[in-house]
Amino acid sequence: MRVGYARVSTNKTSQDVSIDGQAMDLERAGCDRVIIERASAFKGARPGWDELWGLVAGGTLTEVLVIDQSRLSRSGDDLAFLAACAERGITVRALTGGVIEAETYAGFVSAGVLSVMNQAHSRLLAAKVRDGLARRQAAGYSTVSKLPFGYRLTDGRVTPCPTNWPAARARFDGLMAAGMNFSGWLRETKTPGSPTALARWLNHPTLRGFAQGQWGVVEPLITWQEWEQSQRLRQARSQNRGRSAASVRLFSGLVKCSECGGSLAYQRSRNGKNWRLKDLHQWCPWYGRSVAESVARRDAINALRAAATSMATLATTAPAEPAEATAIRAQLSQLEAMAASGVAGLSLAIDGLRAQLRALVTIPAGPRLDRLAAAFGEPGLLERASDDQLRPLLVEFLDRCVYTGQSLGIEVTVRNGVRNDPQ
Predict the structure, then answer these.
(1) I need a surface site. Which of 145, 230, 310, 375 has the fewest CB within 10 A?
(2) What are 331's strand-pairing partners?
(3) What do you get for the CA distance between the two ends of the chain, in Å?
(4) 124 shares its domain with 178
């Protein structure tokens, strides 16, 4: 069997003409099959290349055809491929050069020289790209080829897009309201796209203020606190993947057994009216033990209220400035003094330090429970909340809910470190 191997370095549509032309030439040369690869031969995974190696090992090939030797590889493993083919009596032929072999002295020299030249060419191109990106980044321009929805390039710099910015913010708010249910949000809003595309958009660091190789140089669409909350919601959803919305209750996936580490399951009480959280892991010494959902709910609410009160007290104390911010502030003062004395060319460095300082100062350390202290402190407010209203608060603010084998309650730790033990 004769197999052709056609490859281009990227999956960009601009390479369609090249890959289609290679495949057509290989088919005309009599190939029974053509493997098409859109991947760099210098680095990264190459499924088509791995498939070709598998066919060689299988012993069904008689000839491998390529346009030229550079299509095989630019990382040096083309010589090993030629040796493997020679061991099995498989001919490797380039349409622009004839048979490629490394068994004879002349063939080894020829193939080896071409292999080294291909590697050197790729390394040179990569070095030029890195140098160009570094120069562009040092000049304060964006090095990102594609920006997330909500941003645009203005004179080479990343800025919020006036047209899409409100819609981008509304997208994030909608996803948060949907509990990071990407598929459900797409169906509800009839927005074109896929959950994978939404995940890529949400994970883009520019949404949190990253551009030109550093944080804080562009207005963030979302705060770090909102980002952390979205990740906790996504994690909670992944823990309950496969369950219907109706089967996800207040503590689903949230309460862990301190002995076996497994999640407690919901089970009806004997009277059939109430729910209990029960350890159903047969290998656990606490198998069969349970705690009432109402008791766990009480402990979680008490932990939230105690932590909010504690945070409200701490909020009156000004936090100490990070050591890194102090060092940056000192450098900034020196540069500003030099600029004031007439030294030119410091504006870019000064802007960069100011941006780094803003990023350090504005990144929150964690949930701001002090803002909710007054609301949490209102008598009966949390107790009256429905499970749908209370669950996002548990996901957002509770760090750990641990079952210690007692029916008295659960051990709850809030993200600021405050812990409430079972009563």
Answers:
(1) 145
(2) none
(3) 75
(4) no
* Residue 217 pLDDT: 77
Please tell me the total count of domains within the chain.
3
The 3-state DSSP class for residue 73 equals coil
Mention every residue, 6+ apart, whose C-beta is less than 8 A from residue 46: 37, 39, 40
Residues constituting the chain: 423
Residue bearing tokens 């996901």: 395
Select from 366, 394, 369 the least CA-distant residue to 225: 366
Q: List the structure tokens of 129.
A: 């790209």
CA–CA separation, 355 and 339 (whole Å): 17
Q: Would you tell me the crossing angle of helices 323-340 and 347-362 to the nearest 10 degrees?
A: 150
Instruction: Write out pLDDT tens, residues 363-411.
Output: 444 445 555 666 676 778 888 888 878 887 787 777 788 998 888 899 9
pLDDT tens-digit readout, 215-274: 777 888 988 778 877 887 787 777 665 555 556 788 888 899 988 888 898 988 888 888
**Distance, CA of 175 to CA of 197 (rounded, Å):** 13
- Answer yes or no: do 129 and 189 share one domain: no
Domain that holds residue 31: 2-133
Note whether 44 and 153 are same-domain residues.
no
Helix pair angle (165-177, 182-189), 10° resolution: 120
CATH of the domain at 180: 3.90.1750.20
CA angle 223, 389, 265 (to 5 degrees): 105
CA dist 163 and 336 (Å) reads 36
Task: Label residue 141 by pLDDT band (50, 70, 90).
Answer: low
Measured CA to CA, the distance from residue 210 to residue 276 in angstroms comes to 46
Per the confidence metrics, is the pTM higher than 0.85?
A: no
Is residue 357 within 8 A of residue 329, CB to CB? The reply is yes
Query: Of 55, 56, 39, which Cα lies nearest the Cα of 47?
Result: 39
- Exposed / middle / buried, residue 51 (Cβ in 10 Å: 0-12, 13-18, 19+): middle
Scan for tokens 């090095």, then name that residue: 143
Q: Are 208 and 200 in contact (CB under 8 A)?
A: no
Q: Which of 196, 221, 239 is the last residue of a domain?
A: 239
